[in-house]
Amino acid sequence: MIRTRERVVAVTFNAAWNDAGLERVLGELARRHAPATFFLTGDFAHRYPQVVKRIAAAGHGLGNHSHSHPHFKDLTAAGRRREVRTADRSLRAAGAERALTPFFRFPYSETSPAQIREVNGLGFADVEFTTDTNGWMGTKGGMTVEHAAARALDALRPGAILQMHVGAREGGTEVIDAQALPQILDAITAHGYRVIDLRTLLTSPVRLWPPPEKGAGPGFLRN
Length: 223
What we know:
Elements: E1 8-15, H1 22-31, E2 37-40, H2 42-47, H3 49-57, E3 61-64, H4 77-93, E4 100-104, H5 113-121, E5 125-126, E6 131-132, H6 145-154, E7 160-165, H7 176-190, E8 194-195
Parallel strand pairs: 1-2, 1-7, 1-8, 2-3, 3-4, 4-5, 6-7
C-alpha cells in the first residue's frame, strides 16, 4: 500500500503470457484519463516489443516482473540477479525508454526480506499489491467479471494498489480483468477516489502517512 490519508489508488497490470486484453485495457484507461503501471516480464517484452512501445506511448509506466517468471526461492542469489537484470535489458531493448520505472514485482508475489534487499541492491523498489482481482483465473477457475470488480471494490482504501493482468493463460483470449476494468474504474470514481500514477511517488505529490521510516529505503511499497 501507498501510505497516505488521501483517497488515491494505483492501478497495475502484470504481463507474462500474451497481450489478449491489451487493446481493451489501453482503451478504457485512455477513455478515463487513468494512469497505470504495467509490470512486464523480460520474455514478454522480447516477444511483444510493440506492446512495450504502445504502453510507453500511451504515457503509462513500465515495471520489471523478472525475465522468465520463475519461483525466486528456487534460484540462487546469482540467478535472481540475472532474472532482474535480463528483464531490465529486454525492456530497454524493446523501447521502454522514459516509461521505465525503478519498480520490481516478484513473480507469484513470493518475497522474503533477503530477496527484497537483493532487489533494492540492484536499484529497484519492490512494489506488490493490496489485492489481486484474480481475473487471471478465468471462468474455468471460477472467476467472473462481477467477482473481479467486487474484489477491487472491497480493497478500496487510501493508498490501495490493485493488481490485474493483461493476458490470458495457455494462449487463451478471455481476459476478465480487461472486461472488468470499466466497472472498476467507475467504482473508484464513484467512491470518491482518484487513480494515481505510481511514478509520481518519486516526487512525493501524495502526503504519505505515516512517513516512511528513516533508512527504510525504496522497498516500502508493500501490500
